[in-house]
Task: inverse folding
């Protein structure tokens, strides 16, 4: 271990092999270490314990309605752009048991399920980290906080990896959410040849790194990281013009004819909301066993594309796909700003990639800028 003292904000170099030690140390500290891995020819976020389980040698090709893993044999661990999985599944799970009621000797008792694992999230992209911070604004507010989300979030250890190889549907540079993370991480990695350049973002990150064989970062390594990130900013597959104008643009064009056009293409399948790292619609489901002596209440992911989501007694407030698509886009890119002081999009491009008919959010917004009479 170097004698130099680590400080918050320090930038150091870490040999690749040391990441194995970091994973082992985090597991000893009680964390489940979760990272990207290729399983059954698909990229998923799952429990990992070593570098060998990361998608080394893989890249991804993506465009509207298309995502393909490609094995090229390169030596980078984090070259691949994210697939359909998002980190919100660990902080805001797809299914959360809220309580269980049990009947015993004629009396009901309530069991609160507040036992949650501690997660160490390894390989969180800057856009995905920005999505976590957006969900923080939704679920943890001064007047109210969600107990399930807060418990998962406050114990999470986040290792960000800056993005040097954006994909064909990425547009995080337009929104200022990538390709480099500036805050919100415990440790931030930039993958260079032979080493990771590591930025210390928290006291927990400093303590975890202090036990590893890091080296002072030379000017060469820092310049290499800077140059790589600048190239990444110019390689985005998509762009979004003037994000600050979006709330006004969308809310002033609720009857634009393009809503009819996209409504005819959209399948209403809800893929975009399920792969989105910020969407947070949910429903509550109650169930009981056949004996009638055990009842459970769960929170489950839902979607504004689900017709039942907007059903109220007497009818549906959004009775067709046109209305539901308009609600999704205007909420994410307009009223979300009013509610939470941020847009609900981070430019990850998942909604474009995983749309079966290739609907492109950036193109739809551009179409709204075209005046109609």
Result:
């Amino acid at each position: 271990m170097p004698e130099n003292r680590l400080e918050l904000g320090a930038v150091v170099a870490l040999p690749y092999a040391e990441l194995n030690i970091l994973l082992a140390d985090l597991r000893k500290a009680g964390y489940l270490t979760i990272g990207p891995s290729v399983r059954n020819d698909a990229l998923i976020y799952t429990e990992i314990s070593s570098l060998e389980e990361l998608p080394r040698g893989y890249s991804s090709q993506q465009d509207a309605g298309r995502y393909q893993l490609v094995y090229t044999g390169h030596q980078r661990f984090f070259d691949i752009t994210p697939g359909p999985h998002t980190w919100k599944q660990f902080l805001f799970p797809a299914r959360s048991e809220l309580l269980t009621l049990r009947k015993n000797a004629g009396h009901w008792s309530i069991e609160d399920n507040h036992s949650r694992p501690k997660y160490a999230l390894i390989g969180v992209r800057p856009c995905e980290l920005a999505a976590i911070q957006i969900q923080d604004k939704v679920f943890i507010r001064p007047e109210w906080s969600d107990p399930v989300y807060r418990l998962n979030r406050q114990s999470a250890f986040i290792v960000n990896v800056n993005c040097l190889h954006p994909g064909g549907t990425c547009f995080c540079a337009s929104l200022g959410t990538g390709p480099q993370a500036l805050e919100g991480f415990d440790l931030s990695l930039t993958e260079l040849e032979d080493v990771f350049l590591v930025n210390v973002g928290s006291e927990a990150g400093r303590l975890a790194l202090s036990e590893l064989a890091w080296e002072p970062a030379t000017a060469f390594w820092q310049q290499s990281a800077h140059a790589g990130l600048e190239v990444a900013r110019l390689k985005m597959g998509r762009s979004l013009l003037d994000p600050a104008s979006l709330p006004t643009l969308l809310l002033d064009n609720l009857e634009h004819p393009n809503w009819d056009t996209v409504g005819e293409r959209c399948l209403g399948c809800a893929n975009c909301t399920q792969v989105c790292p910020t969407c947070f619609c949910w429903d509550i489901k109650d169930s009981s066993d056949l004996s009638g002596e055990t009842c459970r209440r769960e929170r489950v992911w839902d979607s504004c594309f689900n017709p039942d989501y907007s059903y109220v007694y007497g009818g549906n407030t959004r009775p067709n796909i046109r209305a539901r698509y308009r609600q999704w886009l205007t909420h994410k890119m307009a009223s979300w700003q009013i509610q939470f002081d941020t847009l609900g999009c981070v430019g990850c491009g998942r909604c474009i990639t995983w749309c079966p008919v290739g609907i492109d959010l950036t193109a739809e917004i551009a179409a709204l800028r075209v005046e109609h009479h």
Summary: The chain has two domains: 11-234, 243-368. The longest strand covers residues 95-104.
